[in-house]
Amino acid sequence: MYKKMNSINDLHALAQLTNGFRKSNKTIGLVPTMGALHEGHLSLVDQALQETDETIVTIFVNPSQFAAGEDLDQYPRTLEADLEKLAEVGAQHVFVPTADLVYPPGFSTSITPPQVAARLEGEFRPTHFSGVATVVLKLFNMTRADVAFFGQKDYQQVCVLRAMTADLNVNVQMRVCPIVREADGLALSSRNRYLDADQRKTALVLYQTLQHTRDLITGGLNDGFEIVTEMRQMLIDGGVDNIDYAVVANPQTLETADFIDGPVVALVAAHVGKTRLIDNLMIQ
Ligand code: AMP
Predict the structure, then answer these.
(1) Known catalytic residues?
(2) What's the CA gap between 178 and 136, in Å, rounded?
(3) Is the dihedral of CA 77, 50, 137, 100 positive or negative?
(4) ∠ CA(86), CA(88), CA(90), 5° rounding?
(5) Ligand 1, atom 6: nearest CA belongs to which residue?
(6) Which of 4, 105, 161, 245 is most solvent-facing, going by the fewest CB within 10 Å?
(7) Which pLDDT does position 1 carry in this prediction?
(8) Which of 154, 159, 186, 189 to mutate to test the pocket of ligand 1 (most atoms within 8 A of CB)?
């Protein structure tokens, strides 16, 4: 039997709960997710359980971060399985709001995301980070989180949220947890379930490209253009259908690096079939 988990879906119950935590000086850890949980999400929950007194996991497929034509309607929704997984790892509280609760009639405020949102993902999904920043700020406020846990898998999202919390004096500490991968290197993603067997094999080329990029740079290649040319070629040879971006960039600003003389992050976004995959690797 799993330990009992507290499932919350209204704001009053959530406020009562968090007021209690505050009064008893308990720290609140927040793990925001869109559900379809896998070991990557659960690693964030583990970290939250270790670092904070009370862990609140949220499951909300946030409509405002999907543009028209993206996969909002198809996005996997597996609530029962998610709740079982969370109970199994010992999550104490799960908040599952409806879209109406998060965006009630008349809702009209949104965050203009910081500058770091404009490049990379921002070029291909121009409204995405406004939706992310708005919902994350709302979740911070709703849960009264002290510490929030995010995955490095969404590297630019972390940059955006760090800048937002600094710019707006948001009193929530951010923790970034490493990317959890399958044994063969594929970064876990809720969207991997869209891939058929052949596409699943093709998808491996994203991480292989990142590893190759690291080898090139640690081997002494420092011309950004040459590196990116190789990255793109490797992705194409590996059979991806479309590359949105393949870059080496400054780890803080995400400006692309023309000449590499310090730590960089390599980031890729590419389509395999209809599925858009992202991955990244820090290179010291
Ligand atoms: P999502 O449900 O896709 O919005 O992801 C919720 C959180 O889980 C985000 O902070 C993601 O960065 C994180 N996450 C997703 N995939 C992974 C992974 N493979 N490893 C670590 N964290 C992940």
Answers:
(1) 41
(2) 20
(3) positive
(4) 70
(5) 33
(6) 105
(7) 46
(8) 154
Distance, CA 151 to ligand 1 centroid (Å)? 5
Q: Which atom of ligand 1 is nearest to the CA of 154?
A: 12
Pocket test of ligand 1: the residue of 33, 64, 156 to mutate, having most ligand atoms within 8 Å of its CB, is 33
Tens of pLDDT, residue by residue over 190-238, are: 999 999 999 999 999 999 999 999 999 999 999 999 999 999 999 999 9
Complete domains list, the chain, with CATH: 2-177 (3.40.50.620), 190-283 (3.30.1300.10)
In the structure, which protein residues have their CB atom closer than 6 angstroms to any atom of ligand 1? 33-34, 40-41, 43-44, 150-151, 153-154, 177, 179-180, 187-190
* Ligand 1 atom showing the smallest separation from residue 178 Cα: 21
Is residue 226 within 8 A of residue 259, CB to CB? The reply is: no
Q: Distance, CA 38 to ligand 1 centroid (Å)?
A: 9
